[in-house]
Design brief:
single chain; 396 residues; alpha/beta; seven-stranded mixed β-sheet; three-stranded antiparallel β-sheet; globular
């Protein structure tokens, strides 16, 4: 067995991706154009399912920009309240601050990583005098869809929009055939370098409402009424354009879109590889008192493998456990440091750790293990043996 370091993540890039990018480089058109348009259509066809009539997809240069566009199009204004889990990456909350609105953090379910509907209801009731409750941003942590039926019910009850942070969740398909990211008003996917498919940097917006789609389409390209691709390639089109809004620069270039199309074509194969690795982990960690397996279920994209340590059965902290893995040449990560303990949000909103007990319990015990397409059996075995040996050495 090789003793070379096992990286935490690595993109699965082959000849198809290389040729797709070279084709764009040779074409003479590098920015947003034919490849991005084709990527949007192919992605929309991939995720269409029940109740997704009229679904459109808009390619963007990051999931962060997609979330910003979604929040702006949904009418989030200064002083409005948007509800989201604290256990998420900072992008989910920061886009709310872009609009001078306020994120309201919500605890996760006991023993899980997803927003707790009961805690969500409680947070909405407790903030009635602090601003207008405008939207909910559930996060499909790890690619496992959260309880969207409850989220949609709560949103409907309070007249709120739902923007799904689906950064982890492609190609999650639930038992009823719906894809995570197609259930709320808007869904946003990520194609960052370590995601389930990658464009290096990039994202995709999924939306069914024509008015929202039109607004986001205009705002992602400087607020201009027509795309550069149309203005420069349609011989009947005029050079003339109009700026309808003070928009943003959020379009996805063709170089990255071509990479995304090649990845999309193999998305189910990549999912199968991650599922196979997770199955090995599940099997070999399941009979130990030292670990709690990640929650799983229908539609789990297995983007992460968030193993939880039973710290009451160990004489080692989570942080030291990670250091011991590193000494064995095994990289790992943590998802996530809760936003309510980050200095900006903690100080601005006077937040306390004790207000989010389930989030803190998840954070303090979680280790994200390597799970990426292309991992060899030897690498998976090294991870398992490394984790188990440290647990055995520091068992109480």
């Amino acid at each position: 067995m090789s003793d070379a370091p096992v990286p935490y993540a690595r993109p699965f890039i082959g000849r198809e991706e290389e040729e797709a990018v070279l084709e764009v480089l040779r074409s003479g058109w590098l920015t947003t154009g034919a490849q991005a348009l084709a990527f949007e259509k192919e992605f929309a066809n991939f995720i269409k399912g029940p109740a997704s009539t009229g679904l459109q997809c808009l390619a963007v240069n990051s999931a962060t920009s997609g979330l910003h566009l979604a929040a702006e199009a949904c009418g989030i204004k200064p002083g409005d309240l948007v509800f989201l889990p604290s256990l998420t990456f900072t992008a989910t909350a920061e886009v709310i601050r872009y609009l001078d609105a306020d994120p309201v953090f919500v605890d996760v379910k006991p023993g899980a990583f997803h927003i707790d509907p009961a805690a969500l209801e409680h947070a909405i009731e407790n903030t009635k005098n602090k601003g207008a409750a405008k939207a909910i941003m559930p996060v499909h942590y790890n690619g496992l869809p959260c309880d969207m039926d409850s989220v949609m019910r709560i949103a409907g009850k309070h007249g709120m929009k739902v923007i799904e942070d689906a950064a982890h969740s492609f190609p999650s398909v639930m038992e009823d055939g719906r894809h995570a990211g197609t259930i709320g008003d808007v869904g946003v996917f990520s194609f960052y370098a370590n995601k389930t498919i990658t464009t290096g940097e990039g994202g995709m917006i999924a939306v069914k409402d024509e008015a929202l789609a039109k607004r986001m389409s205009v705002m992602r390209s400087h607020g201009i009424d027509r795309s550069v691709w149309t203005r420069y390639t349609d011989l009947k089109a005029s050079w003339y354009y109009e700026v309808l809004e003070a928009g943003f620069k959020y379009n996805l270039p063709d170089i990255l879109a071509a990479l995304g199309r090649a990845q999309l074509a193999r998305a189910l194969d990549l999912l199968e590889m991650r599922v196979a690795i997770a199955a090995v982990y599940d099997d070999l960690f399941s009979n130990s008192e030292h670990f709690a397996l990640p929650p799983t279920g229908a539609g789990d994209a297995r983007h992460l493998y968030p193993l939880r340590l039973n710290l009451s059965a160990l004489k080692i902290s989570r942080d030291d456990f990670i250091d011991k893995l590193k000494e064995k040449g095994i990289a790992s990560s943590v998802h996530y440091i809760p936003l309510h303990v980050m200095p900006f949000y903690k100080n601005r909103y006077n937040l306390n750790e004790d207000d989010f007990p389930q989030t803190m319990a998840a954070y303090k015990s979680e280790i994200s293990l390597p799970i990426w397409p292309g991992m060899t059996e030897g690498q998976v075995s090294r991870v398992v043996e490394g984790v188990k040996s440290i647990a055995a050495e520091y068992a109480k």
